[in-house]
Amino acid sequence: MRTDSPQTIFRKDYTPPSYLVHTVELGFDLDPARTIVANRVTLSRNPASKSKDLVLHGEEIDLVALRMNGKTLAPGQYVLGSHTLTIPKAPAEVTLEIETLCAPELNTTLSGLYVSNGSFYTQCEAEGFRRITYFPDRPDVMAKYTVMLRADKQRYPVLLSNGNLLEQGDLDGGRHYAKWEDPFKKPSYLFALVAARLVCQEETYTLKSGREVLLQVWVEEGNLDKTDYAMQSLKNSIRWDEERFGLELDLDRFMIVAVGDFNMGAMENKGLNIFNTKFVLANPRVATDIDYAGIEAVVGHEYFHNWTGNRVTCRDWFQLSLKEGLTVFRDQEFSADMIGTASGRAVTRIDQVRTLRQAQFPEDAGPMAHPVRPDSFVEINNFYTVTVYEKGAEVVRMYQTLLGREGFRKGMDLYFQRHDEQAVQCDDFRAAMADANGRDLAQFERWYSQAGTPVVTASTRYDAAAQTYDITLSQRCPDTPGQTGKLPFHIPVAVGLLGADGKDMALALDGEVVGATTAVLELKEAEQTFRFTSVREQPVPSILRDFSAPVVLEYPYTDAELLHLFRYDSDAVNRWEAGQRLAMARLLKLTAAVAQGATLALDDTFIAAQRAVLVDETLDAAFRELALVLPSETIIAEQMEVVDPHAIHAARQFMRRTIARELAPELLAQYQANQTPGPYSPDAQSAGKRGLKNLALAYLLIDPGSAELKLAQRQFEQATNMTDRAAALSALIHSGEDVRASLQSFYDDFAGEALVVDKWFAMQGAAPNTDVAAVRKLMQHPAFTLKNPNRARSLLFSFCNANPSQFHAKDGSAYDFWAEHVIALDALNPQVAARLARSMDRWRRYAPALQDQMRAALERVARAAPLSNDVMEVVSKALA
Ligand code: PHE
Ligand code: ZN
Asked: Which residue is closest in CA terms to ligand 1's atom 5?
């Protein structure tokens, strides 16, 4: 909780630590009510610092004893602040012995040492280690750790920490111990311990070098039937990092532990990754295709951090994207390579584009907009954002687009050569990329320093006589809080030209043969013209292929051109994009028509294009599904000056209904044709089929009283996997029929599976017929609790973020609900509360009647006391 007024921390104020740590020996006497932590740490004065004050961080811990170089420090020899312990004018070489107390069972923040389902877990990123012991808790202080754990043997039979197990044994009084040593230097945020009643799936795995390593996936007893996929994903990750980047696992032992109470997805603690159960547990009965894909991605992500994050870490938290953007990029490439086909790769890319538009572009245009490398923050936990992660990954991807795969690999190699076991900055990564390739990437720095989504405007001119085709690209970037007058970015714009036959033209730029059917134009000025030569006919340009930069592209495409691209573009991302543009133009017109009370109509051309894709058997099912999913209500809202969520909802529903009616026979045929009989497999091909089939089912159930209700009912009852069962239930819920019996039977079947109960809440929270009264009623359900982040997210976040037509109820009742629960959550878990607080980010774009009520709700939260720094930062920036 906030004790003094929140302070803004600035990147420009960075100073090196006054002391560096060599070794840390930690002793834990674990007890839920009263854990004793003994910390013996050796430090030396840092020659790079002018200060002789030894500053340690500490929060919510009680100091019991403090000795320096063997002598107890008298109260006058140190200063105990609310969040620091300072020893002024400390000697050059220091050994500190610090004993503190904490109460893990009272820790509801899930940061530091806490209890989940009766066992102990830690979470130290970003600043949780200071909730365990006094320490210079900053990532540029790297040290070697030895850890002794002591706990009751019956209740906590498994004692884990980073690195290698040195010894274990029994103690008096039914207790036991385990001693661990991490051979690598690490920052404190990578420390972890687990003391729990768990079981594991384990395996010895042989690295390419021939060295054998022990892999373990630890879960609660009843979940041992759900660890196979995580283990398989871990082995795939190890192999992939060896092959693609020449990076080997540096430990003899690598552990994954699943915990039910966790704020984020997972955490890359050295050798001891701790995961939200959501990203470990899967079997066909309880997990969907999306869950399986999530597990593969997150297991990969955390494993890849071992090099990008752990071996080379961040100098300070402003550099967070150095590890996160790079590691997201790596996990994206891993997932794409696991599918293996070009079309599968494109499907993963389209998913990434959707996430950016759904979440990152709005963030970049809202009150919390910040550069990939922020300049300031109040609470670092608020900066684990889609900008730092996903836009950061786009920035890394652009290096690869500019330098090629080989050039990118050279840059990575140089990065590790220069910076292994160091804490560095985003600039160091950029320098490695530039130096390894002899390239000037100075201007590329603006991707790190300037917030906001750049807009690239294209115009074209074909000269039939000269056979030239000019593409003029110009760029601008809107102002963001605290940043005006942006300078031009270095933007790779991948372009192909389609002929009337739908085929890619051979390309030449200013007379030089490109040698590929896609050219990467490097836009560096405010405006530049690129000339394609020997262009025999007027082409249709396919611009920003593979989404080569995280920008908004404006080009006055005609419907005819878009239809051409939608039918022929060899670049699957732009093929999909053409369909999205066709849909968006119509959705915006329909939204305006709804608002004006005009009659709604949808043209046959659009329907025909949708039909053509739906039945095109040469296309992957997964691609066809993506092509048929209309832009979300959130993405439509982002295109409007003044957002009318009800009109958007009505317009989109009208379009879906019309498509459903016009394409009913084809949808039914696809439903039948894409069944996946036989045992469930999460592979991309099968998942794609299920995706298309279930999209068809959802369409078939849109019309009230649909004749296909029984189809969904049958699928719901007979499904042999969760993907099909949940999709059927969701379609039933969205049909608007009375589905209480189905909901009840689903709940009864899966009441013991927390992650499935989360789905049950989430489906209802996001259904357009769930109003705020219904959500309040669901919160009365015995299975609901605000204390578990997954559960809180399942209902509250799905309602506030994924159900816009109800969240924006005209009477403002859902805004009151939001305020009430941001405040309630804040008392338990500020990090989760601050995420919920972000639901109001875009409030200024709504019609005045809604805006006033949203402001009132924000003000209500801002006035609440006490309020965490986390929530205070979000609401005060929203109101600013
Ligand atoms: N570093 C984690 C990841 O991205 C995320 C995380 C941040 C987890 C903070 C917990 C707390 O892999
Ligand atoms: Zn990460």
From this structure: 267
Residues of the chain where predicted confidence (pLDDT) is lower than 50: 1-3
d(CA 71, CA 739): 71
Q: Where in the chain is the domain with CATH 1.10.390.10?
A: 313-449
Atom number of ligand 1 nearest to Cα 309: 1
pLDDT value of residue 1: 44
Best probe residue, ligand 1, of 114, 261, 264, 326 (max atoms within 8 Å of C-beta)? 264
Q: What is the pLDDT of residue 4?
A: 55
Structure token pair of residue 63: 């100091």
What architecture does CATH give domain 568-674+689-702? Alpha Horseshoe (1.25)
Residue 781: the pLDDT is 98
Structure tokens at 173: 């009084």
Question: Does residue 302 line the site of ligand 1, with CB under 6 A?
Answer: yes
The CATH number corresponding to 1-197 among 3.20.20.140, 2.60.40.1730, 1.25.40.80, 3.40.190.10 equals 2.60.40.1730
Which atom of ligand 1 is nearest the CA belonging to 328?
Answer: 4
Q: Which of 97, 302, 577, 633 is catalytic?
A: 302
ipTM value, please give it.
Answer: 0.99
Give the pLDDT of residue 703: 83
Q: How much distance in Å is there from the Cα of 520 to the middle of ligand 1?
A: 34
Give tens-digit pLDDT for 788-832: 999 999 999 999 999 999 999 999 999 999 999 999 999 999 999
SS3 23: strand
Predicted local distance difference test score (pLDDT) of residue 6: 80
H or E segment to which residue 462 belongs: strand 455-463
The rounded distance, in Å, linking the Cα atoms of 111 and 133 is 13
CATH of domain 199-286: 3.30.2010.30
Tell me how far apart the alpha carbons of residues 506 and 511 are, in angstroms, rounded to a whole number: 12
Looking at the chain, the domain(s) classified CATH 2.60.40.1730 span 1-197
Residue with the smallest CA separation from ligand 1 atom 1 is 267
835 CA distance to ligand 1 centroid (A)? 14
Q: Which atom of ligand 1 is nearest to the CA of 384?
A: 7
Any atom of ligand 1 within 6 Å of the Cβ of 125: yes
CA distances to 631, 751, 870 from 785, in Å:
32, 14, 21
Beta strand ranges found along 311-443 (DSSP E) = 313-314, 376-377, 423-424
CA 319 to ligand 1 centroid distance, Å: 14
Active-site residue, 638 included: no
Judge contact between 493 and 574, C-beta under 8 A. no
What top-level class would CATH report for the domain 455-556?
A: mainly beta
Which residues of the chain are in CATH 1.25.50.10 domains? 568-674+689-702
List CB contacts of 429: < 8 A, sequence separation 6 or more.
322, 326, 411, 415
CATH number of 313-449: 1.10.390.10
For Cα atoms 13, 17, 22, give the angle at the middle one, nearest 5 degrees: 160
